[in-house]
Amino acid sequence: MHDKIHLNMGSGGLASRELLEEVFLPLLGNEVLNLLDDSAEIALGSERIAFTTDSFTVHPIFFPGGNIGTLSVCGTVNDLAAKGATPVALSAAFTIEEGFPIADLRTIVHSMRDSADLAGAQIVTGDTKVVGKGVMDGIFITTSGIGRVLEGLHIFSGGARPSDLIIISGTAADHGVAILNAREKLGFNPEIRSDVAPVHRIVERISHLGPQIHAMRDPTRGGIAGVLHEIARASRVTIKIVEDAVPVRPDVRACCALLGLDPLSIANEGKLIIFTAPESAETVLECVRKLPEGKEAAIIGEVEAEPYSEGSPPVILETSLGTRRFLPLAEGEPLPRIC
Amino acid sequence: MHDKIHLNMGSGGLASRELLEEVFLPLLGNEVLNLLDDSAEIALGSERIAFTTDSFTVHPIFFPGGNIGTLSVCGTVNDLAAKGATPVALSAAFTIEEGFPIADLRTIVHSMRDSADLAGAQIVTGDTKVVGKGVMDGIFITTSGIGRVLEGLHIFSGGARPSDLIIISGTAADHGVAILNAREKLGFNPEIRSDVAPVHRIVERISHLGPQIHAMRDPTRGGIAGVLHEIARASRVTIKIVEDAVPVRPDVRACCALLGLDPLSIANEGKLIIFTAPESAETVLECVRKLPEGKEAAIIGEVEAEPYSEGSPPVILETSLGTRRFLPLAEGEPLPRIC
Fold it and tell me: CB distance B99–A4 less than 8 Å?
């Protein structure tokens, strides 16, 4: 174990998992936290509640397609959605550097309201801390959310089963590439926009399938590869992904190719990965595609029928050339402050 | 309105209220948020849930009596308690600077677990973001919490009534003075310790009094004065505090006198202010004093019987000399990063 925090430890990749296993889980571990889902599910009276939190430190705070405010609300709504829950109430905690422009804060808070409205949720509680100039860079926002788990849904990362089909609700890597383009002023034209958006409607549309939906995640930090690794690990299954089946916008693909990045490892902020029983996959696909935010949904792979064997690579990529190779879990996101 | 964020805007005083009224409430305002209580109360099925969030940026992160981890858990537990709720589940979101010592993180997380154990709550979900060296100073933690509101309690800042008696559960200003002493190396000896601790047991002990308890707050940023101003404003009452009745440790009083600080305006992190019907005040006091954390509880004032009149000072201090003067709401905490 390292003795100092490395950038990669906040990236959603291998180093993040190490930090979890070395520091957080041994001290805080309990039945709920140990599931390592994006939301915790807790029972309150007769209600099943999803509860989640995320900090946002994205840089730049304004980017094509959204800003840190949009991201903070959608990120939390989507963590609830991936647990099969619709948002009930959100909280927002702001940490702001002295001297930060109030006009920018107003724009950010405006976007938060718009995103919350879109998700049908209210921000019901909050906090603001201000720190001296130089103590931090600009603004960080931490949002938490409470959701109501939709009846019939029991979603957790360990729920994937052999022969499940895997669906993504739209194109891969838009958010990460948009941030990279904006931060590094790569000048891709037309501008690549983040996909930041709430995905709760997708979950509402497929919730009638109930136990046919086995696992869901929103592939943010670490991208699709990160999420597939977590699900494979938690479910003890082997996953196969067909590279050509993953929808990627041409400009995003070009940018990735130029920079040597794999779109499968880049963050999304408005997508959902769904593991479903094979007999329901077409129905799921139809339901998702009927929504504007899901019109590019695609089946991208499956859970292999063979039983999982300890030590074998959990995620296999069938490449454009027809070869099969191990899809690695990145050490970390290529970029810090992606969300 | 200013055009840039000032330090005072995160202090719990007048400037914080201005920021709320100018930016947050016009954009995000709703029936629950507008109450400006430390926790939101929401109905979920047949349950009444309290929901709260707070960011912690305290400096130094280790101080006599606790650390940023203790503070982050107790702060959230206490915001739930002040709403009459016992904690059910907590979340923790970490923002950490690259290079932060993992041994320190482990100590902090250990303290979080100890405080959560003390409060009978589990941390069920979390998040870790790492930012590059220099992007921020060390570690910030944002905790959120869900609690169950105890039966019979209906607590909100607007609940104080004429003739209510006001009780504080212990000595004033310990936390703020401890941080000041630690940060500025004032060298007070013996060391002044922060009072950081959960106060939920106090609430459990008095919950049987139900509707006799009218308002509660934990006096953190802005101190007792800040909380009294908020309750006076929300309840439309005038409050009278007897200076000599407020318990203050001799070393804390000496430190405040030396530095020209008013203990009534300094942060606490393990205290509760309770507004109760006068006929129940002695019972409340007895219940609170039976707990070690409440053994120095005292009646410190009352709500004046006369109706509130617009424009008149809402909080009156009866001084040691027997004179009456207006207790002002400070522009801000004398110190940033107090919690």
Answer: yes
Q: What is the ipTM of this complex?
A: 0.96
Amino acid at A245: A
Q: Does A163 touch chain B (CB under 8 A)?
A: no
Tell me the β-bridge partners of A91: A125, A144
Distance CA A68, CA A66 (A): 7
Both tokens of residue B284?
A: 């409340």
> Alpha helices, DSSP H only, in B31-162?
68-81, 102-119
- Report yes or no: A272 and A285 within 8 Å, Cβ to Cβ: no
The beta-carbon neighbor of B137 closest among A27, A53, A135 is A135
Type of residue found at A71: L
- What is the residue whose two structure tokens read 């920018």? A104
Within chain B, all domains assigned CATH 3.30.1330.10 are found at 38-149
* Partners of A56 in beta bridges: A141
Q: Which residues of A touch B141 (CB under 8 A)?
A: none
pTM: 0.96
Q: What are A241's two structure tokens? A: 């992904």
- Number of residues in chain B: 339
Going residue by residue through chain A, which has 339 residues, state the pLDDT in tens, using 9 for 90 and above.
689 999 989 887 888 889 999 999 999 999 999 998 989 999 998 899 999 999 999 999 999 999 999 999 999 999 999 999 999 999 999 999 999 999 999 999 999 999 999 999 999 999 999 999 999 999 999 999 999 999 999 999 999 999 999 999 999 999 999 999 998 887 776 789 999 999 999 999 999 999 999 999 999 999 999 999 999 999 999 999 999 999 999 999 999 998 899 999 999 999 999 999 999 999 999 999 999 999 999 999 999 988 777 778 899 999 989 999 999 887 766 678 999
CB contact under 8 A, B23 and A94: no
Strand partners, A130: A96
- Which residues in chain B are contacts of A40 at CB distance < 8 A? 89, 91, 124-125
* Fold held by B157-326: Phosphoribosyl-aminoimidazole Synthetase; Chain A, domain 2 (3.90.650)
The set of residues, in sequence order, having a beta carbon less than 8 Å from that of B59 and lying 6+ positions away, is: A135, B137, B138, B179, B183, B337
Q: With beta carbons less than 8 A apart as the criterion, state whether B183 and B60 touch.
A: yes
Nearest-by-CA chain B residue for A58 = B131
**Ramachandran category for residue B182: left, alpha or beta (phi over 0 → left; psi -120 to 50 → alpha):** alpha
Q: Is A99 exposed, middle or buried (0-12, 13-18, 19+ CB in 10 A)?
A: middle
Any bridge partners for residue B242, and if so which? B318
Q: Do residue B93 and residue A55 have CB atoms under 8 angstroms apart?
A: yes
**Interface contact B94-A55, CB threshold 8 A:** yes
> Where in the sequence of chain A do the CATH 3.90.650.10 domains occur?
157-326
Contact B50, B83 (CB under 8 A): yes
Task: Looking at the structure, give the CATH architecture of the domain made up of residues B38-149.
Answer: 2-Layer Sandwich (3.30)
